[in-house]
Amino acid sequence: MSGLRHFQPPYGCQNTVHSRTQPLEHCLVALNSGDHIHGHCGPHVGLLHTVLRRLPRPEGVQTHPWKNWKWNNLSVSLCHSSITAVWALSCVAQSPIMLKEMHLPSSPVTYLLACFSTGYFLHDASDILLSSYARASWEFLLHHVLVLWCFLYAILTHRYVAGVSVALFVEVNSIFLHSRLMMRLACIDKSSYPYTFVKLLNLITYVLFRLGAQFLITRFIIMNYAWLDHATSLLVAIGAMNIMMMVYLWRLVHADFLPQRQLCHNDNRSKGTHDEESSSLKQD
């Protein structure tokens, strides 16, 4: 089993990845600031940021500081989820063995997927920290710290990158999770057909893709605990996220399937309370 502890990426992968990781993270951070990045993918990031800022948004969102910031944050998150959901599913579809052997060496495509998502989580964490709502968003920050610990370990050691692809199955659910919150920010009627459709898909994909991915990863670590590198640290991080996922599931069910007050009726509440409400609606 000792040979399994020191996997190296396939030939050509290491150089490709190291040359692209920093630009990818730099580009994603630029999404929030709007800076023009010269060199790798700079024009594309500038164009995406410009499009996101100029897209029309509901009047109630545009005139409300917290909602306006949240809308911008969710717009970037939705772009990330849409890209990585397809990317992760494609990677695993091409190599289904990754579902069972998450320690396997990575291909350049799966490694870049890990780098891309790590850049996003760094961006999102910095966006929260630099906003005036960081204190009320501590759950997001804790979640991001746990994710970044696992993803950065995979990137720096070239181990468990296949597991990162499986973990990113959660982004299928995140598409509906972010869409749902944006609909709530826009005060879409919760009894309307579009909202009902999104909330049902959100619940279904939450169980199938978010909890399903967590189950596969947890099972892999437990079944192979005896020989996996840093298995204890990984199991603690995954275990903490499992607890958070169950709490978030209860909050989602309570918010969408049990009576409660509408978000748009609470405009006079504090900024912190707004973010606490949204903590049940968004995580990556």
Would you give an account of this structure?
With 284 residues, this protein is an all-alpha fold. The model is unreliable at 1-42 and 265-284 (pLDDT under 50). It is globular, with a radius of gyration of 19 Å. 37% of the residues are buried. Helices cover 70% and strands 0% of the residues. It has one domain. It is built from eleven helices and no strands. The longest helix has 31 residues, at 193-223. Helix 1 (13-33) runs parallel beside helix 2 (42-54) and helix 8 runs antiparallel to helix 9 (193-223).
Approximate helicity band: over 70%
How many domains make up the 3D coordinates?
1
Quick one: biggest sheet? Answer: none
Strand proportion, as a percent range, falls in under 5%
Low-pLDDT regions: 1-42, 265-284
Structural shape? globular
